[in-house]
Amino acid sequence: MTWVVGEMGMRWLHMPVSNIAELFILFNIVYFARKGWKDIAWLNGVALIAIAADFALHYILK
After folding, report:
1. What residues in the chain have per-residue pLDDT under 50?
2. Which three-class secondary structure state does DSSP give residue 43?
3. How far apart, in whole angstroms, are the C-alpha atoms of residue 39 and residue 4?
4. Handedness of CA 58, 11, 4, 32 (dihedral sign)
5. Helix, strand or coil for residue 16?
6. Cα–Cα distance measured from residue 46 to residue 15, given in angstroms and rounded to the nearest whole number
7. pTM, whole model, 2 decimals?
8. 25 and 40 Cβ atoms separated by less than 8 Å
9. End-to-end CA distance of the chain
């Protein structure tokens, strides 16, 4: 969804939508860890780390 918002010409909306998605992923990590589903919490953690790595790559390449 964040990519679609960026491609639709609303680049100013990309960052807030991306941050909301990251907050949902962080919520999923906590939620599934408390439920005892450590494997799903771990996968969400990997996704969040991948987003952070992508951000770092974009920052470095600018």
Report:
1. none
2. helix
3. 29
4. positive
5. helix
6. 20
7. 0.79
8. no
9. 23
Q: How far apart are CA 38 and CA 54, in angstroms?
A: 24
Q: What is the pLDDT of residue 7?
A: 83
Can you give the pLDDT at residue 24? 96
Q: How far apart are CA 34 and CA 7, in angstroms?
A: 37
CA dihedral for 16, 18, 22, 27, sign (positive or negative)? positive
The whole-number pLDDT of residue 40 equals 96
Give me 37's structure tokens: 């589903």
Write down the H helix ranges in the chain. Answer: 2-7, 11-35, 38-61
The HSE-up count of residue 15 (CA atoms within 13 Å, CB side) is 3
Side chain identity, residue 52: A
